[in-house]
Amino acid sequence: MAAIAVELKLECRYCGSPIPLNAVSPKILCYHCLTLISISKESWKEILGEICRRVFDENENRLTFTGNMIPFYVEGNVCMRLYGKEEPMNLNRKPIPMKHALEHLQDNLFSMQGQTVFIRPIPKEYSSFLKSATHFVGEDETQIYRNQNSEIKNPTSSDLVVFTCPSCGGALKIDGTKRILECTYCKVNVYIPDALWFRFHPSKLTRRWYIWFGESYPK
Length: 219
Prior knowledge:
Radius of gyration: 20 Å
Number of strands: 15
Number of domains: 2
Largest sheet: 9 strands, antiparallel
Low-confidence stretches: 150-157
Distance between the termini: 14 Å
Mean pLDDT: 87
Structural class: alpha+beta
Helix content: 10-25%
């Protein structure tokens, strides 16, 4: 079974916060400053194409970590990379039976041991530089950008939290859609503190996902 394990993390160039890259996507959201960061096809080619080249050329089974000593930049953001040959595993570090999984996918999801694993064919815009690879395995589907509001859900009444304006003491209803909002009483711009903001938007952790090649690696 041939696969490359990948862990990626950006440092947001706007606020300095870590952003896990748990999926291949044209845009990724910084949960701290709410900036949508574009990652072009060429940047993904540089990231994943270079990882594949190194794994194939070095022909080693150990995992490699890069970016901590010599910065590797993606669209102006520092990127940390861990990669290497490894069979696909779920979040509990149990091997995924890939042949069985591909035969029993439902809406790109495979269920095993109480978990669902997201598996999708490699989109054609990335397949040109990932030749012989067939699937991405174990991505965080919620990080795949689809539209302007795909990362921030529309609030419901049960989501509202009352927050005291630090300027006038007025009661502000916070729904988690804006990090900075205007006080309805004194008209001062109020910045939502981290403790409350991350109640609406819990920080994501870096997780391992895989580039799947099938039965053998390309020669």
